[in-house]
Amino acid sequence: MSTTAIGQPNSVAIVFFILFILITLGITYWAARRTRTTEHFYAAGRTISPGQNGFALAGDYMSAASFLGIAGLVSTTGFDGLIYSTGWLVGWPVVLFLIAEPLRNLGKYTFADVVALRLNQTPVRIAAAVGTLATVILYLIAQMVGAGGLIKLMFGLSYETAIVIVGVAMIAYVLFGGMLATTWVQIVKAALLLAGAFLLALLVLARFHFNPAALFAAAATKYGASVLNPGKLVSNPLDTISLGMALMFGTAGLPHILMRFYTVPDARAARTSVFYATGLIGFFYLLTFVLGFGAMVFVGPDAIKVVDKGGNMAAPLLAEFLGGTPFLGFIAAVAFATILAVVAGLTLSGAAALSHDLWVNAMHRGEADSREELRVARVATVVLGIIAIVLGVTFKGQNVAYMVSLAFAIAASGNFPALLMSIFWRRFTTAGAVASMLFGTLATLLLIYLSPTIQVDILKHTSAWFPLKNPALLTIPLSFAVGIVVSLLGAQAGVDDRAYHRRMHLGELSADR
Questions:
Q1: What is the pLDDT of residues 413-434, one digit of tens each?
Q2: pTM for the full model?
Q3: What b/e readout covers 15-30, taking b as 16+ CB neighbours within 10 angstroms?
Q4: Mapped to the 3 state alphabet, what secondary structure does 437-503 carry?
Q5: What is the pLDDT of residues 197-246, one digit of tens each?
Q6: Which contiguous run of DSSP H or E holds residue 192?
């Protein structure tokens, strides 16, 4: 592929971009008229059906990092990109069987509601907010970097201007429409993304008589058999295991995913929505693998890296090769819609941590006025939007799929162990929960800084203090160990286990009887 229209204004992309903005602003206006209370702002009034929530969960999860980043990694490194697809997918059974139903029965708006239910509210809420905000901010950086690169290349705008546009739109969705607007933006985006990726994959497979094996064989013929073997991206087996653990268990610790279980009427609806989401996400990740190898064969790794050194433009370049400039414009607009929807969900979960966990429950011991809480949540939305814009500009040029994996490592180490132990282990104490969450979050951040990713790739040092690119292999078991040891060293009385477990299985009303 010698020439590309990427980098020049694309009329089709601009039309779809304006159309999507108008539709989503209409949704936001409709939702704003129905968002009057904190329950509406955080949980859409718990009126979302299982099918709608399944699409919204899938929309939250099928991020631009997945669409642009995985296709880019597969197109430039081959088989190793598969670990991202499978790692993200296999985390959903953990959510389905262990997390969804207890979370919906025990919590109200955030996962900290569940961890703090039997424990001392203030220290647990603060520790949970630290883990939530670290995950949300790192995830936001990845989305903003993808958005900036995409809009810069598609509309000819500067990277910085593109970041500001995304940040302003994201703030508008959450500020005025809350969870109801965010949910329906996710549903629209999920439908567009699945349709766009499916159409692109069909065009790729049509060149090989709809035989995926022929596509992989063509890649091996052109670039050598090594593209079908592991080792080009992750050569260390321990790195591979560590990355897989971060992706799998991080799913069950992502604040914006966990928050979605409060938007449905009951625990059964929460479980059903996970079932729908798992099917949609699995189908999508299969498509990204086809898109990655398709881009490798038709566009070529060198041509992809010329346009974007992180490989994030592989899918748009493939769309241009197969469908010309109009199809490139459509796929770029779909990717842009994907980014906007995901950053809105992330911002909402971060705002909930600041207002519901910190302001209301940690600072005012649960006695803040509902209107005051709503006002604080909206101020927090604006603050997080500004932070996302600044960090998006700062981290320009990084591969977005890899950055998301680091966010997953924090969610897997800081949030997941404490959430699981608070649900299923009766001897879990306040000190154990705080120690586990703070250790998991801070140790992950420290080891990421000491890893080859920062020390070698960014700071250009010859070696790194910590050998693994992703620290989850170490930090997840240690977070469990810290929580268990600290809990066993101290005693905690006054816990009503029977009422707690009745509520976990039957819901709040049943526990009160």
A1: 999 999 999 988 888 999 999 9
A2: 0.85
A3: ebbeebbeebbebbee
A4: HHHHHHHHHHHHHHCHHHHHHHCCCCCCCCCCCCCHHHHHHHHHHHHHHHHHHCCCCCCCHHHHHHH
A5: 999 999 999 999 999 899 999 988 988 888 787 766 666 788 888 888 88
A6: helix 159-206
